[in-house]
TrEMBL record:
The lineage of its organism: Bacteria, Bacillati, Bacillota, Bacilli, Bacillales. Keywords: Cell membrane, Membrane, Transmembrane, Transmembrane helix, Transport. Pfam families: BPD_transp_1 (PF00528). The keyword Cell membrane applies. It is a multi-pass membrane protein. It is found in: Cell membrane. Gene3D superfamilies: MetI-like. It comes from the Bacteria. This is Arabinosaccharide transport system permease protein. The chain crosses the membrane at residues 26-48, 88-109, 121-142, 166-184, 225-244, 279-301. The keyword Transcription does not apply. Residues 83-298 form the ABC transmembrane type-1 domain.
Length: 310
């Protein structure tokens, strides 16, 4: 607008607040603020509160600081059993939930397979199912009666019926197969997405060089999807140590001889069942430290922290 009699036109001045909100220095913080707030309220605060509780004896209406007494109680056979069960579960699920989905993804990524969408959907559906619902079905399938599905199948091969929920090996088998059943489809989708980004020229060059199917898998496919393999195995490790539902659905709060007891189950048993919140918090802090150390060691061993040019 031109000046009139040497005076500047009086236009609508931008609101200072809007100007501040539209600033390039402020906008990024506005967008990340929901995550930061939810992290502070839902993750950091409970974690700090849990650490504080681990040094306390908490009874109804009475809270007392007792130092490291809760941590000294961790040296008991039940905790070692829970940690052993959880560790075995983690190892088995990492193997199953990394290898099986990878080969399923390779199979479904093949141009020779028909009805791919049906296969992908059928493998992903268990992830949408509640663990409790799936576990109830598994309890019926792996019942102790001779008429249970699993016992009928092994009876066809001349093997005696098994009391699946009352043996250590079969108890671990039940937890692993339930967890694997739920997450194989999800991990397979990760690998499928990674495989579809592998350049076809690499396979063409390998074919020209006369590479066999195994050599293409070893020297082309696996190196190309290595970051996803590390990602899938890492989240499987973390989820394995946090496992609770797969055990609870078969034995609820306690299992015979603690064959199905996990570390999180032990937290539930002590913190909720026995109302010993201080000791439960100490177990939780110990579990958090274990997960952190193992995850860091695993990522170091797999070279995740190395730069691309190293």
């Amino acid at each position: 607008m031109p000046e009139i009699n040497g005076t500047k036109p009086v236009g609508k001045q931008p609101n200072k607040l809007m100007k501040l909100l539209n600033s390039k220095n402020i906008v990024p913080y506005i967008f990340v603020s929901p995550f930061i707030l939810s992290f502070l309220v839902l993750t950091l605060y409970p974690a700090v509160q849990g650490i504080i509780m681990s040094f306390q004896s908490i009874l109804p209406g009475q809270v007392e600081f007792i130092g490291l007494e809760n941590y000294s109680r961790l040296t008991n056979s039940t905790f070692y059993t829970a940690l052993s069960n959880t560790t075995i579960y983690v190892i088995l699920t990492v193997l199953v939930l990394t290898i099986v989905p990878l080969f399923l993804a390779i199979f479904l990524n093949s141009k020779f397979v028909r009805f791919k969408t049906i296969f992908r959907a059928s493998l992903f559906i268990p992830a949408l199912t509640s663990t409790i619902v799936g576990g109830m079905i598994f309890r019926l399938m792996f019942g102790e009666q001779d008429t249970a599905v699993a016992n009928q199948i092994i009876n066809w091969f001349g093997i005696d019926s098994v009391e699946w929920r009352y043996n250590a090996w079969s108890a671990m088998f039940l937890m692993v197969i339930l967890g694997s059943w739920r997450w194989i489809g999800v991990n397979m989708l990760y690998f499928l997405a990674a495989l579809q980004n592998v350049p076809g020229e690499l396979y063409e060059a390998a074919e020209i060089d006369g590479a066999s199917a195994w050599q293409k898998l070893k020297f082309v496919t696996i190196p190309s999807v290595k970051p996803i393999i590390i990602f899938v195995s890492t989240i499987t490790i973390i989820n394995g140590f946090r496992m609770f539902e797969e055990s609870f659905v078969f034995w609820e709060a306690s299992s015979p001889g603690n064959i199905g007891l996990t570390v999180v189950g032990y937290i539930y048993q002590q913190g909720i069942g026995q109302n010993d919140m201080g000791f439960g918090a100490a177990i939780g802090v110990a579990l958090m430290i274990i997960i952190f150390i193992i995850s860091i060691i695993y990522l170091l061993l797999t070279g995740t922290f190395k730069r691309g040019d190293e």
